[in-house]
Amino acid sequence: MDPQHISVPVGGGMHLHCALSGPPGAPPLLVVHGGPDWDHSYLLDPLTRLGPRRLVLPDLRGCGRSSPGPCSFAAAARDLARLIAHLGLQSPDLLGFSVGGQVVQRLVLDHPGPFGRVIMASSTLWPVTDADFGPWPERERRRAAESRVWAAPGPATPALVERAARAGAPANVWRQDRIAHYRRVLDRVHWSAHWLRTLRAGALDSPRPAEGPRRLAEADAAWLFLHGRQDMVFPARVAERAAALLPRSRTVLLDGAGHMAHVDRPEAWTTSIETFLAHQS
């Protein structure tokens, strides 16, 4: 069944485009996409294969088909809190993918739930630099094409964001036999550039809340850090480090999977989520 698409008012004239999938009475799972100038669509498959869950997949402000208002991580988290209230979601479980995981961290800290379990998929609690990966020639080779796109002069446009995403496919998807599928997934994304323009203007706030790791360790939540072992955006060891810090947390590292671990290992990825949600309280 195709998702239902709605527009949710979140204040200040802003609306979030939101896809809903699964039985309306099933336990809700709020899914926050990364990018951030992407939309929710690249996560629908394989998430729609999960057991009975009410999937709620908004496009962040300035992304996809949501309103193009001022972009900030603080505002994005506030929008999600208002979306949860508007939809009447009761203790939703949360899944944040990549940069979306950092928005979820803000949501947990700035707008305390009640929430259910929290899944950080291909995300991080800390800043990451190239030095954190150590010598890795394969990473340098696979990331070269995307790096050239970002280095080329030109305005911040949705077309630029899309070119970078397509050029980055060999770095983000570890299994070469899955890249063609991934590029078809990218065909469905509604690209934007509002966040990129804000970043280039020096006006974007930090994705990480002040003293975030310490405060998250004090939050009453169960955490899953789900990561591809060959992730070239955030090294896998950040997931292990986070699970060692946060009580009631666990790590699942998927071998043969990169940043887009749900593309490389869809069955293992969804099984990890289902197992966590079924057994962790």
UniProtKB/TrEMBL annotation:
Residues 27-266 form the AB hydrolase-1 domain. One of its GO terms (cellular component) is membrane. It comes from the Bacteria. Transmembrane segments: none annotated. GO terms for molecular function: catalytic activity. This is Amino acid amidase. It comes from Nocardiopsis kunsanensis.
